[in-house]
Write a structure and sequence with these properties.
single chain, mainly beta, 22-stranded antiparallel barrel, 7 helices, 51 strands
Length: about 900
């Protein structure tokens, strides 16, 4: 064959081929070596990770970060400005190694600058702290308003308490929790710095309080959809502090209409707080201590054989408590923050259980001691991840003892005498661990997390160890004919573990500017239950249909589960028929039960072998409308269908007067076949004529410094169970479907706050609700099971209602400021809305103030002294049938002094 070149290959062909092949290999090797040498000599590009925070070390999303080169090579390739992410981190990739100037901007803050940084290959992490400007009170910033309105975590379907509302809250943590529940509409979950449970901090440590409605995402356990998030503030800046003292005297309080004269009453609250930086921009602390010494006079309202006794008793019920709350913040690195918290609570209450039907000898003393350690670590992880890990360790101990050790005599719904018969206590050691991992990329905002709650429970709590006589009526008592005698005997010591865990994942997918889809899945599991199928899918749609972003629509659906209460499990251990026995004697002799009558050995409580967690399916639909920057309103409808609710099934109910198993009395098994159905409509209106500010007004009178809001909830709740050990009166669930015990149809809360008069802050809060239902009972054990829940024929559960509740409370403070030296306090920034834009930054402190401030405070509960009746009696054998037996929330007025520097 002749090649195309026309030459003929002869004997030189093999040698030339080998040389050509060797040459090509040499050239290829040279190219590889040259490329590798060039790569080694040319530095790789770097990635700049800039975290932007405010003076409190809180991250600032949506800040603008600009990078400018300082060398000729770096000036040649300028980088476009970048916005910080949800976690406050701006990521700039492809940055040439060299020197740069980095600036961060955010409206309402001074520009932050890193004058000269050196970027090297790989990740380069830096932090810019922005100082707040001193000219304006608040400013609204963010991304495109439509995009912000469609953010699930945005300002829609949530509202923040104003500074005035926070100041108007009670200094008592328990009372504060009740007030927050009223503001939110009831049944909300309280979280402090992302931790659920525990006592609330003092008002001096609260940075902001935010109420979230329609919280359907997989990260949430509760089906109610209402959360109250309380954020505490770190102690940035110079040392500052204060003290307070409040006094409440019964002379200014209201009298119960059930007694002719009011007994003495007094409460003294005192506390102090200190905060400041330990290491500038590195470590800070905030500590608060609070004490309370108080006493009340119990009011007796009982029907005795000699007649009705209605009087303020001559004894007092004292209460002493001490509460410590401390935070320590430490910046581990430039973008990782560690927060340590410690809570301590000690309280003693004496002469509890006295008043209403209970005579003075029925009192007891209770002591409680609690210690809680909180550890939280948060910050970015790499370029696109953000972690938030929380660990809570709790130790709680309680003990009780009776004033009198004697048998109890109980005449149903008339009076109770004898000893309280309580002794021992409970000791719990619990651990709560939760961790979230956030990932943001393109249109996805993913959150994955775990939650682990567990602990050791030890108890020697015991009750009714001397025995209780129960009479069906006063006539039966006068005839010395008790219906039953019960007594608990055996070993009260029990110890057990309880662990419940959850894992979840969710994704907010931004389909387009005004539309976000939020799918998610949560899985839960718990000890003591044979339930491994508790998967809870969640899904939501958030839609902002208009470009201005003033209207937000949302629909959501999800499956939620309820944990088995540890107290329910504890009862099945305690009274299992062997460890402790609950003896029942029917128609015993009196005053010595002797051995006459029918004497079954004991009651017994147990869990069903196939018991699973109760399941709630929730559907919701809502709209949030911003009419103007100062006026917002919203309505949310939710439907919750509950299945697998717990109730008691009596396996040994009498049949024709005899027990199927004569070795036991009532054998109550906890089963999960009850159900519930709930409809709620929650609406709110918020009007902020001007942003709240603690800055003194420069005008004597300025009516624009006024804000008000209204929250109204309409709801219905029906079920067929009153609890895990509640046995149906008829023995069948078919006749038990009725309004639930907490079926309150209407709830209204309104707030009005003004700083119109210079140095004077006035706040009014109105709370009203309709009546809860109660059940009419015969008062007689008709079926002989010794459970006094029998109803007249044809009468259902919770068929009648009492009166509603009305309360108008006020908080007023006038502040004197003095001292030649003026100080600039930390800003106490409150961010309202989405962490990624479209939110309001409210600067809580701007202008320098005189160093010392003294406030005169008046805090009044139930200003009008409206009588709120409770304790409606439904027993036909009671002398008080159909009437209230107590009142709640009579007028109480506290006066005090607040001092701060």
């Amino acid at each position: 064959m002749i090649p195309a070149s026309g030459f003929r290959h002869e004997s030189t062909k093999p040698r030339n081929g080998i040389l050509l092949c060797c040459f090509r290999v040499f050239v290829f090797a040279w190219q590889i070596w040259t490329a590798s040498t060039t790569s080694a000599q040319t530095p790789r590009d770097g990635t700049l990770l800039v975290t932007v925070v405010d003076q409190t070390r809180a991250v600032i999303p949506a800040a603008t970060v600009t990078v400018t080169g300082l060398d000729d090579p770096t000036k040649a390739t300028p980088a476009a400005p970048v916005k910080t992410s949800d976690q406050g981190v701006a990521t700039i990739t492809g940055v040439k190694p060299g020197r740069y100037l980095v600036q961060a901007e955010f409206p309402g803050f001074e520009i932050g600058t890193l004058k000269e940084i050196r970027v090297r290959s790989g990740d380069n992490k830096h932090v810019i702290v922005l100082a707040i400007q001193g000219l304006q009170d608040s400013i609204t910033v963010g991304r495109d308003p439509q995009e912000s309105a469609a953010d699930r975590r945005g300002n829609a379907f949530g509202s923040a308490l104003t500074r005035e509302q926070v100041d108007a809250l009670s200094d008592d943590p328990d009372e504060m929790a009740k007030q927050l529940q009223e503001i939110a509409g009831g049944d909300a979950v309280l979280r402090v710095d992302s931790f659920e449970g525990g006592k609330l901090p003092s008002k001096a440590q609260i940075k902001s309080i935010h109420v979230t409605r329609d919280a359907f995402a997989a990260e949430n356990h509760s089906a109610g959809g209402l959360f109250i998030d309380i954020i505490t503030q770190p102690g940035v800046g110079p040392l500052r502090g204060g003290g307070r003292y409040n006094l409440r005297d019964g002379a200014l309080g209201g009298r119960s209409p059930f007694v002719p004269t009011k007994g003495p009453e007094r409460s003294q609250n005192y506390g102090t707080n200190f905060a400041g930086s330990l290491v500038k921009e590195r470590a800070s602390f905030n500590v608060s201590m609070q004490g309370n010494t108080a006493y009340e006079t119990p009011n007796l309202y009982a029907a005795l054989p000699t007649g009705t006794r209605s009087e303020a008793l001559s004894i007092r019920s004292p209460r002493d408590s001490f509460f410590l709350f401390g935070n320590f913040d430490y910046a581990i690195t430039k973008d990782q923050t560690l927060r340590l918290g410690y809570n301590q609570e000690d309280s003693t209450q004496r002469n509890l259980g006295i008043g209403a039907y209970d005579l003075p000898e029925h009192g007891h003393t209770n002591e409680e001691h609690g210690r809680t350690v909180r550890i939280q670590e948060a910050g970015p992880l790499g370029r696109r991840f953000f972690t938030n890990t929380r660990l809570l360790l709790s130790m709680n101990d309680s003990a009780s003892r009776s004033v009198l050790e004697a048998r109890t005599i109980r005449v149903n719904d008339a009076f109770t005498s004898g000893g309280a018969q309580v002794a021992g206590g409970r000791h719990t050691r619990t651990v709560n661990l939760a961790s979230d991992l956030d990932y943001v990329r393109s249109i996805h905002s993913v959150r994955m997390g775990i939650a682990l709650n567990g602990g050791s429970f030890r108890s020697d709590d015991t009750s009714n160890y001397l025995g209780t006589y129960t009479f069906e009526s006063l006539e039966a008592y006068e005839a010395e004919l008790p219906r039953s005698y019960t007594r608990r005997i055996g070993d009260p010591n029990i110890q057990y573990w309880n662990v419940q865990a959850a894992a979840y994942g969710q994704d907010d997918i931004k389909i387009r500017k005004g539309l976000t889809l939020s799918p998610g899945l949560r899985y839960e599991i718990q000890t003591h239950l044979q339930d491994s199928t508790a998967f809870g899918p969640r899904f939501g749609i958030t839609w902002a249909p208009f470009k201005k972003g003033k209207t937000t629509l949302r629909a959501s659906a999800g499956v939620f589960y309820d944990w088995l209460n540890s107290g329910t499990y504890e009862q099945t251990l305690r009274v299992d028929g062997f460890r402790q026995q609950e003896l029942n004697i029917v128609n015993p002799s009196f005053p010595d039960p002797g051995t006459s009558g029918i004497v079954p050995p004991t009651n017994k409580y147990l869990l069903a072998g196939d018991l699973q967690m109760a399941r709630n399916t929730r559907l919701s639909l809502g709209i949030d409308q911003a009419f103007t920057p100062k006026v917002r309103a919203g309505v949310t409808y939710a439907h919750i269908n509950g299945t697998g609710l717990l109730r008691g099934l009596n396996l040994n109910a009498p049949v024709d007067g005899s027990r199927p198993n004569p070795l036991f009395s009532n054998v109550v098994e906890v089963v999960g076949d009850a159900r519930s159905r709930q409809h709620t409509v929650n609406s709110f209106l918020q009007v902020m004529i001007s942003p709240p500010s603690p800055n003194p007004s420069k005008q004597l009178l300025n009516w624009k410094r006024t804000n008000f809001g209204v929250n109204y909830t309409f709801g219905t709740l029906r079920n067929n169970s009153d609890g895990a050990f509640s046995v149906p009166a008829t023995g069948s669930l078919a006749t038990e479907w009725a309004p639930a015990g907490n079926d309150i149809r209407h709830r209204l809360n309104a707030f009005f706050g003004t700083q119109a008069l210079r140095n004077f802050n006035a706040n009014l809060n109105l709370s009203a609700s309709s009546a809860s239902p109660y059940t009419i009972r015969t008062g007689i054990d008709t079926n002989g099971d010794l459970i006094f829940n029998d109803r007249p024929d044809g009468v259902g559960r919770n068929s009648v209602r009492g009166d509603g509740r009305f309360d108008l409370s006020g908080f007023f403070v006038y502040t004197f400021m003095f001292g030649r030296r003026r100080v600039q306090l930390p800003p106490g920034i409150m961010i309202n809305g989405s962490p990624v834009g479209g939110f309001t930054v409210t600067q809580m402190q701007i202008d320098p103030l005189p160093r010392f401030r003294l406030g005169l405070v008046v805090n009044a509960q139930n200003l009008t002294n409206h009588t709120n009746y409770v304790g409606y009696q439904g027993s036909l054998t009671s002398p008080f049938f159909g009437r209230p037996t107590s009142v709640t929330g009579m007028r109480k007025i506290d006066v005090g002094l607040n001092f701060s520097f």
